[in-house]
Amino acid sequence: MTDAILQMRGITKTFPGVKALQDVNLEVRRGEIHAICGENGAGKSTLMKVLSGVYPHGSYDGEIYFDGGMCDFAGIRDSEKRGIVIIHQELALSPYLSLAENIFLGNERAKRGLIDWNRTNAEAADLLNRVGLRENPTTAARDLGVGKQQLVEIAKALSKEVRLLILDEPTAALNDEDSAHLLDLLRGLRDEGITCVIISHKLNEIEAVADAVTILRDGRTIETLDMRAGGVTEDRIISGMVGRDLEHRFPPHESTIGEEVLRIEDWTVHSPTQHGRVVVSEAHLTLRRGEIVGLAGLMGAGRTELAMSVFGRSYGVDISGRVFKNGKEIQIRTVGDAIRHGIAYATEDRKRYGLNLIEDIKRNVSAARLEKVANRGWVHDNEEYRVAEEFRSSLNIKAPSVASTTGNLSGGNQQKVVLAKWMFTDPDVLILDEPTRGIDVGAKYEIYGIINRLADQGKAILVISSELPELLGICDRIYALSAGRITGELSRANATPERLMAYMTTVKE
Amino acid sequence: MSSVAPTSDQIPTNTSVAVDPDLTSPPTNTPRSRSSVGLRQSGIYIAFAAIIVLFEVLTQGALLEPQNISNIVVQNSYILILAIGMILIIIAGHIDLSAGSVVAVTGAIAAVLMVNQHVSWPLAIVITLVMGALIGAWQGFWIAYFGIPAFIVTLAGMLVFRALTLTVLGNQGIGPFPDNVRTLANGFTPGFLGNVGLGVLGGADLFSLIVGVLAVAGIFGVQWRARRGRIGYRQAVDPLPIFALKLAGAALVLMFIIVQIARFKNLPWVLVLLAVLVLAYTLISQRTVFGRHIYAVGGNLQAASLSGVKVKAVTFWIFVNMGVLAAIAGIIFAGRLNQAGPTAGNSFELDAIAAAFIGGAAVQGGVGKVAGAITGGLIMAVINNGMSLIGSPSERVMLVKGLVLLGAVAFDVWSKRRAGRTR
To answer: Which SMART domains match (chain A) (predicted)?
Structure first.
């Protein structure tokens, strides 16, 4: 019997319509670094939210034992009281507060309601020292780089007398040097007796630092591997992450591929928020008539950023590179330019960026090219209605009429409205970012059918997806993106989940 | 569960289809949510009618006397004009706190041009409108292209343009205005065709009556054509009796107002101006690409921007438009008082904002109609007028107006939340 500090048994968590976790088991030994691996959507973050009380006891099935005692956390405060601290992927520092204020936020060092600043700053300095950060505790958090901010988060966790530290993708936004420093720090904490659970997509890091790995897939525990014994390679982990058979979830399709429509060369994009950070680096991409091309990549690889920067510079600064349409170089400075050049981009977050939810279907369908149903600035209402009605029947949008509010539709039908909106612009190139996220199996099948039909009409299609089976199921060719670089290109015949995952986790210099 | 999982013919039979949780509701739900939207839209008109009936009773019929109707329109025309510009700004998700000060400064500019510089009045009006546009462009620039929230920019504008008013006027009122401008602001169309007897109702201006009849005929024609067009496109339309009933109701109300106004005097010029503006802006907001873009920007800024809408330009131009409308209001207000004063337009912006929100605009933007804002403005006008007729002190008028504004927006929020819950 090993000395387990944490045992999660039979955890099942259901969201409306989706089983996010199904009978998941996790056992973490005292004083180890335990990694959790899995594809996007495998349930890693959900599991950690169950553990830390973000999803309170009772909203899930199963049992959690921490340090021998049963846990029934009603919220994140309860779990922190027991010494379980989670550091989320998106850093949660308040940018204008000092480091010391951030570290003790919600946990202030106070005497009779008044903050004891001397104690606050002195203790903060000690904690910063412990994580190897030589900064003045009165510095504002925003003056630090992401790597150092990550360390401040850890210092904040240490201030809560952490016993189990959970890190969700701690190195996703860090450069190699900062990552290495962070991993060193984790080893140091382990030696001090703090147990760590780390979620990461970077398999080389896991190989380097983890004592054990638990692999999740489709909301289930697949296996737990002991890394200390040696012999567990990245490939071994990958096969655990992807090993599933492709069911008949995709409509059969033979693409008739024609000449090149769009070519992107040397495409480099910098982050608008973090000065100097390269988000997309020298990417090359080719799309051809009638071809469905996939773009695979893990969270943070720069897929959406690549697409949006091409689509009228909707993302990024210092964008360089060239775009060719039908062999001729084109300049795309605005979204309007992109639409005029026959490029359409359906966003991954349809509610925030894709639709005007308070408007009806027809006004959403016509939104991206209203001029088509207008004459000298005057909109032809009836024509708009007719066109929208055509899409409603051809795409099988389930709504009483095109005058229905889009906000009242289901996810699948909203997605069809988004597709209709971009089909209405008569594009030659359609970039579909996560076209089936959050919609049910039936609607997914319909969306795949629509994508196939668009390809048959001679349009070039780029599908961005986090679901490898989806890419393998519908694409003729797949690019893999890792840390902003195209690391590989696989034809349908050569593409396997393992190869793709290997490319997606490659870190090129 | 009355609804069936969709598209069974397209899905391989071995795949079990999860019933989309959202899909199970629409068949029963959408009519309900549609009717609640309908209630929100028509609720304002029902409330307006109720308030009119209430005050008609409380004032023992004085409210709808010919002269009083004319007064309500003339006394509130500048607020209603501002409300038209304001609703467009609110639909786009912004606000304008400077409207009152812009009314004052444009009135002052007009006064200096006409009274001190003796510029001919048509030219002076054109120059004033251009100044209004420039003021709007100034604010629009900071909001749209510099990215400062409209609240801040127009709060600054409120102070700056009030200060400029005082500077231009040299701290005193300037007047009197030329007769033509006063007629425009306060006067009536000449009785081109003389009076005609209406039996017990007494005499009425024939020209006004003819205009009224033509307007009704116009409404009939336009509505009938729209209906035919929709039928041609196989869209759902109201059954003929209901369609006829609605039209008849609208015609009756319109003719009643016109007859009352005609019995008092001729048509007020500002009513003509207001009618033209309402018609024009209703068309612009509902039927043009630009109007649609205003709704798109307010409904979902990011989605609009990713749909190729020139978000910044739209924002800029609605503020330019607001500046022009404020200049029109400024000329009319100054002309009506026959003098441009340093306190002109004080808190007009608040009345215009209140009119827009009472008229069904949403705080988050994306929703609202010109007709709604006008109705909202008229509701406040009737409350003002009715309460002063029954001799209420001004603090009570203010109290009631405040509570009506709060109540109207609370109703809006409540009905939206209810619609959200049934979804």
So the answer is: AAA (SM00382)
**Phi and psi torsions of A313, nearest 5°:** 50, 45
Same domain, B97 and B158: yes
**What pLDDT is recorded for position A168?**
87
Distance CA A239, CA B12 (A): 28
The pLDDT score that the predictor gives to residue B419 is 63
Contact: A356, B287; criterion CB under 8 Å: no
Q: Is the residue at B362 inside a domain? A: yes
Helix H or strand E segment including A359:
none
| Reported CATH class of domain A4-242 | alpha beta
What ipTM does this complex have? 0.81
- The residue to which tokens 């507060």 are assigned: A97
Q: How far is A333 from chain B (nearest CA, A)?
A: 11
Whole-number Å distance between alpha carbons of A65 and A83: 13
For residues B99-109, give the mean pLDDT. 97
In percent, how much of chain B has pLDDT > 90? 66
Q: What are the φ and ψ backbone dihedral angles of A272, each rounded to 5 degrees? A: -75, -20
Class of domain A258-342+428-509: alpha beta
Q: Is B226 among the domain residues?
A: yes
Judged against a pLDDT cut of 80, whether residue B23 lies above it is answered with no
* Tens-digit pLDDT profile for residues A329-362: 999 999 999 999 999 999 988 888 999 999 999 9
Name the phi and psi angles at B290, rounded to 5: -60, -45
- Do B263 and B277 fall into the same domain? no
Residue B45 within a domain: no
Residue B38: C-alpha distances to residues A384, A399, B181, B354, B413 (Å): 22, 18, 42, 21, 15
Task: Give the residue from chain A lying closest to B303, CA to CA.
Answer: A353
Residues A215, A184 contacting (CB under 8 angstroms): no
Shared domain for B78 and B177, answered yes or no, is: yes
On chain B, the residues whose CB falls within 8 A of the CB of A353 are 300, 302-303, 306
What digits encode the pLDDT tens for the residues A265-323?
999 999 888 788 899 999 999 999 999 999 998 877 889 999 999 999 999 899 999 99
The answer on B125 and B101 residing in a single domain is: yes
Q: Which domain holds residue B176?
A: 66-187+269-385
Between CA A214 and CA A271 the distance in angstroms is 33
Residue A145, both tokens: 């780089």
Q: Where does a domain end: B240, B267, B294?
A: B267
* pLDDT, average across residues A467-493: 91
Give A-chain residues touching B228 at CB under 8 angstroms.
Answer: none
Nearest to A127 by CA among A107, A91, A154: A154
Same domain flag for B286 and B326: yes
Question: Sorting pLDDT into bands at 50, 70 and 90, what band is B124?
Answer: very high
Strand order in the sheet with A328-330: A278-288, A260-270, A317-325, A328-330
Considering only CA atoms, which of A403, A429, A404, A433 is closest in space to residue A418? A433
Task: Mark yes or no for CB contact A445/B299 under 8 Å.
Answer: no
Nearest residue, CB atoms, B17 vs list A377, A405, A442: A442
